User: Which sequence fits this backbone?
């Protein structure tokens, strides 16, 4: 029992990730009616679980200092807010996200000169949160989601390294968590 | 149908291009993804308006998501063809699930990571599958 508690405690983002992935596959599964597509979906889900197992079985040992953590959090929030503010000014939200990503790359170069690593990926992660449409999330909610994505990046800094889409899935998890929290607050008040 | 096929190939192209740029140049994956998708999004803005807003938006979104697939490190996926296949898989996932996660930040990235994980899982099983279904060629 103690081992299971430790597993849940140490790797809770992993369970979140697996849960969202299986939710995705089941919702896809529910739409299709033909048998081969169902079989294909089950196969894809199994392959997904295998990939998650491969990635989470290899763990790096990265440690951030207090000041580095603070910088990464502010970087995430700034990327989020910038993208959210820029989006109405351009035609597609991809353009604003890419522009803020370029700015983040510049900031990352400046910060690595002073010894702060990983600023550029965090800003890029924040831009994905900021790509959320204004109908779904207001500015305050997006701010909270950006902060949550920074925290999640700090939690997941040793897992999933080198997997394309890690930043995007962090952004997705943070958006899901924040929207769930706002729903909870609405129910309670 | 041809448009869907072309969009799927576009996802693969995006992944391949981003991988190429991030490998060949110094700045790294974030710069490669941002610059390629910015160029393609600007091209999509200047495309003919007869194509429709939805299609033009889809082109930019698929390229952006495909470039996330291409951001994965070369130590994880060594083969460029595998990156291309992963990008195609991402585009297929995106096109088949456009009704999910509308307006949520990070839905694209989640699908991209799903496709990368699927490809890696399949690749891990591949030698065993080959042994099970086809008789293995003996090592010389």
Assistant:
């Amino acid at each position: 029992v103690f081992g299971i508690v430790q597993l849940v405690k140490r790797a809770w983002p992993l369970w979140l990730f697996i849960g969202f992935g299986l939710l995705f596959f089941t919702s896809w599964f529910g739409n299709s009616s033909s048998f081969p597509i169902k079989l294909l979906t089950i196969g894809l889900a199994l392959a997904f679980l295998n990939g998650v197992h491969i990635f989470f079985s290899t763990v790096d040992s990265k440690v951030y200092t207090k000041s580095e953590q603070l910088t990464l959090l502010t970087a995430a929030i700034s990327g989020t807010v910038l993208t959210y503010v820029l989006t109405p000014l351009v035609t597609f939200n991809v353009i604003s996200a890419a522009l803020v990503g370029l700015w983040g790359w510049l900031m990352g170069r400046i910060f690595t000169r002073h010894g702060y690593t990983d600023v550029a990926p965090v800003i890029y992660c924040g831009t994905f949160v900021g790509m959320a449409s204004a109908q779904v999330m207001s500015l305050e909610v997006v701010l909270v989601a950006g902060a949550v994505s920074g925290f999640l990046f700090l939690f997941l800094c040793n897992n999933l390294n080198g997997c394309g889409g890690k930043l995007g899935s962090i952004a997705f998890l943070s958006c899901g968590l924040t929207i769930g929290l706002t729903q909870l607050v609405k129910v309670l008040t | 149908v041809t448009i869907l096929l072309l969009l799927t190939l576009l996802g693969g192209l995006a992944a391949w291009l981003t991988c190429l740029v991030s490998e060949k140049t110094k700045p790294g994956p974030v710069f490669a993804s941002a610059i390629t998708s910015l160029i393609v999004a600007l091209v999509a803005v200047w495309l003919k308006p007869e194509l429709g807003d939805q299609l033009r938006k889809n082109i930019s979104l698929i390229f952006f998501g495909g470039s996330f697939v291409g951001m994965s490190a070369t130590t994880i996926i060594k083969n460029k063809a595998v990156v291309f296949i992963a990008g195609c898989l991402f585009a297929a996932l995106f096109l088949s699930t456009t009704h999910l996660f509308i307006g949520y930040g990070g839905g694209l990235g989640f699908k991209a990571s799903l496709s990368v994980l699927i490809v890696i899982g399949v690749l891990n099983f591949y030698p065993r599958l080959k042994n099970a279904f086809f008789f293995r060629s003996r090592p010389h």
User: Anything to note?
Assistant: Chain A touches chain B through 59 residues (CB under 8 Å).
